[in-house]
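Sync notes, pocket subgroup
Present: LS, DG
LS reminded everyone that the earlier model was apo-only. Rerun requested with magnesium ion included. Inputs:
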Amino acid sequence: MRSLREITDLKDKKVLLRVDFDVPVSDEGQIEETFRIKKQKETINYLVERGAKVVMVAHISDKSVDQSFSTLMPQLHILLGCEINFLKTVSDIGVYLENYAGLALLENIRKNIGEKENDSEFALSLSKGFDVYVNNDFAVCHRNHASVSGINKLLPNYAGFVVEEEVASLSRAVNSPKEGKIIIIGGAKAENKIPVIKNFLDKADRVLVGGVVANDILKEKGYDIGSSIVDENSKEFLSDLDLNSPQLIIPKDFNISENKILDIGRETIKDFSEIIKNAKTIIWNGPMGLFEDKRFVEGTRAIAQAVADSDAFKVVGGGDTISAIGKFGLGGKFDFSASSGQVFVSTGGGAMLAFLSGDKLPGLEALEN
Ligand code: ADP
Ligand code: MG
């Protein structure tokens, strides 16, 4: 993976920059989480300050803006602190590169069917007129899409600072000594989370599990979990997980309501907090319960607090996990804006889990070549 810093002369270089602007937007059209966008600043500024002509490509999934960047441009302008021209279609890029300087953003790249299909014709049309490609969107690196892994064959390619920092921090966590290393997995979606548990059973001292994933495991172990929510397809992912591994720590008591497990219980909070306190490396993804409802917030809050108080090297990720931390007023302790060396907040949900599962990520593989 070559760093953006290796491009010797950026003056007038035409740069296709993959960025991460996939943020939630309120019904009133306000961007609700700015962390991902702010993270892009350093790379954008680096390129613009050195005289590069930059066209950014990104996707946005939020339906309240009809999956379009058009109405978000004024907010992006303020958040990034620079003028951004808006390009409606890929065919507008050529004219822009010929006639204008500075920074532009292309409309949601996924509005082109060739993007998700990783169509080579589409990748070719996207690459036209550019000198280099820079990938600064770690969160999409687990996808085999044209602007993520297809474009690399067509342009000299480099990793932006976000991708570099994500890979370095996640690798540091994965490769840190087993002794004192723990991973906490909660939330839902067995298909993404159980492979991480599997990968860490022999790489970590302890794997602590809460949330719906814990329900999946309890059910598989034959416990009566009443009408608790489970992941429907969990059985197939659990089939080759050693459910009796001494490393695997599942909750021993619960906060139950209407016959559903909705949070971890007091004893479990105590046990988990003690393990967290003694850890040297902590990886955390996924809430311990239905934290959106204040009756079931305590487990997640206590875990967030224990992680915040620890001096360990910490890596945290997941959209809901990050929003929980913010809700508890612990954002400052996790320092979302910069990686302070001891704590790293990942922008990748699915991509972080894929990386932690030991999977090869197409977007990173493509940067290697
Ligand atoms: P992240 O985005 O941090 O990776 P997930 O998306 O996997 O987290 O899961 C978060 C969701 O899981 C939250 O909406 C939370 O309410 C829900 N959840 C966690 N535990 C339970 C539970 N016991 N019952 C129902 N929902 C739960
Ligand atoms: Mg989520």
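DG: The first helix runs from residue 35 to 49.
LS: The longest strand covers residues 14-18.
Action: DG to write up.
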